[in-house]
Write a structure and sequence with these properties.
This protein is of the alpha+beta class and about 400 residues long. The protein folds into three domains: about 80 residues, 2-Layer Sandwich (Double Stranded RNA Binding Domain); about 100 residues, DNA polymerase, domain 1 (Orthogonal Bundle); about 170 residues, Orthogonal Bundle (hpI Integrase, Chain A). Helix content is about 45%, strand content about 10%. It contains 18 helices and seven strands. The protein has a four-stranded antiparallel beta sheet, with helices on one face. A hairpin with a 2-residue loop joins strand 3 and strand 4. This is Tyrosine-type recombinase/integrase. It comes from Pseudochrobactrum kiredjianiae. InterPro entries: DNA_brk_join_enz (IPR011010), Integrase-like_cat_sf (IPR013762), Integrase_catalytic (IPR002104), Integrase_DNA-bd_sf (IPR038488), Integrase_DNA_bind_dom (IPR025166), Integrase_recombinase_N (IPR010998), Phage_int_M (IPR053876), Phage_Integrase (IPR050808). Pfam families: Arm-DNA-bind_3, Phage_int_M, Phage_integrase.
């Protein structure tokens, strides 16, 4: 034992009253009046005397305090400030933790260009933000395993099956992103978690749709000229999705053609051009009435600000005692095309804005069937307004 070192004993540390006690070599025990105690190492570096805390006695034993003191005294002999060196190590450790929340945000940033509107709506990130990050966000991604994932998704695995599926898929993307950054992660963790969670009981259900034969009666009831009634009428007549319908602007309409920006067309991620919608005379009449409500360029504004919400139209149908929902009118139109016309498949799918054919086929196709669709939508409007229901034969080309 070196002279002047290791003066204290474990019993002395435990029973000593309040005060300061030297163990030797600059290591001191500081005991407070409240019973608490901590280790302090006194050092002189670059001609300056400093005190370095080594931790509480309740956490750091006498042996551990002496070992730490030996390490730091060795640094001082090498003319290295142990306090600054410890702080540097802490900063480096923090940089290398790579919390899951940081990885997720970085993965989101790298994928924004692939998402509609650069992901500003938040749909890509929200499953992670709501169901993963609250419990796992501050966990180093390298420590994440299938049991952690299983435990956080188990509460919603069956009750919110689609949301849970999206959260799991997004998490898998985050792990691949971490691996691409050079971090050691378990790329199979999400699949292992899926196995632990088991098969989901939830079965995906189609959005309730109104039978096409019942659409005329519903349409005739939308007669008060309100924003909600007019929006539902144009939704039915055009077969578009709710978002582009609710965000329709005056400058998008040129004659009897409504041009929807490519960014608003769900399911057309590879589209490089906008989508044209032919407007029947009945649809043009609805638009003319909607212009009386226009605000800030939008034809269907909400009462306060922005545009009418999808929930507004859905609640209107719900209060009317209907199971069908606004999005279901796309199915009504598609069923009418299939059952009451002889429209070729490509034209029928294009009516709904669906991508048709493979990438090579689409590259050589130079038509969006606008004239065929114009004739078809006129016949649909005639059915919707109760004028006639004769079978129509559409010719492709």
């Amino acid at each position: 034992m070196a002279r002047g070192l290791n003066k204290l004993s474990a019993l002395a540390v435990k029973n000593a009253p309040a005060g300061k006690y030297a163990d030797g070599g600059g290591l001191w025990l500081h005991k407070r009046d409240d019973g608490g105690a901590q280790w302090v190492l006194r050092i002189t570096i670059h001609g300056r005397r400093r005190e370095m805390g080594l931790g509480s006695v309740s956490v750091v034993s006498l042996k551990e305090a002496r070992e730490a003191a030996d390490r730091y005294r060795a640094l001082v002999r090498d003319n290295i400030d142990p306090i600054k060196d410890r702080e540097r190590q802490k900063r480096e450790a923090a940089r290398n933790l790579h919390f899951l929340s940081d990885i997720a945000l970085d993965a989101f940033e790298s994928r924004k260009a692939e998402l509609k509107g650069d992901g500003k709506a938040g749909r890509w990130f929200s499953p992670l933000e709501l169901h993963i990050m609250p419990k796992l966000g501050k966990m180093p991604v390298a420590e994440l395993d299938q049991k952690d994932i299983r435990d956080v998704l188990a509460p919603i695995w069956h009750d919110k099956a689609e949301t849970a599926r999206k959260a799991l898929n997004r998490l898998s993307i985050c792990l691949k992103h971490a691996a691409a950054l050079g971090l050691e992660v378990d790329l199979q963790a999400t699949e292992k978690a899926r196995a632990l969670l088991g098969k989901q009981r939830h079965k995906a259900q189609n959005i309730p749709a109104m039978p096409w034969l019942e659409v005329p009666a519903f349409y005739s009831g939308l007669s008060d000229g309100s924003v909600t009634h007019l929006a539902l009428r144009l939704l039915i007549l055009t077969g578009v999705r709710s978002r582009p319908l609710r965000h329709i602007r005056e400058e998008q309409i040129d004659g009897d053609i409504w041009t929807i920006p490519a960014d608003d067309m769900k399911g057309r991620k590879d589209a490089t051009s906008d989508f044209r919608v032919p407007l029947s005379p009945e649809a043009m009449s609805v638009i003319e009435q909607a212009r009386n409500h226009a605000r800030d360029g939008y034809l269907f504004p909400s009462i306060r600000k922005g545009v009418i919400s999808d929930m507004t139209m859905a609640m209107f149908m719900s209060r009317a005692g209907l199971e069908a929902r606004p999005h279901g009118f796309r199915s009504s139109l598609r069923d009418w095309i299939a059952e009451a016309t002889e429209t070729p498949h490509d034209i029928a799918e294009t009516v709904l804005g669906h991508v048709v054919g493979g990438s090579v086929e689409r590259a050589y196709r130079r038509t969006d069937f606008i004239e065929q669709r114009r004739n078809l939508m006129v016949r649909w409007s005639q059915h919707v307004t109760g004028q006639n229901g004769q079978v129509v034969k559409m010719v492709k080309g």
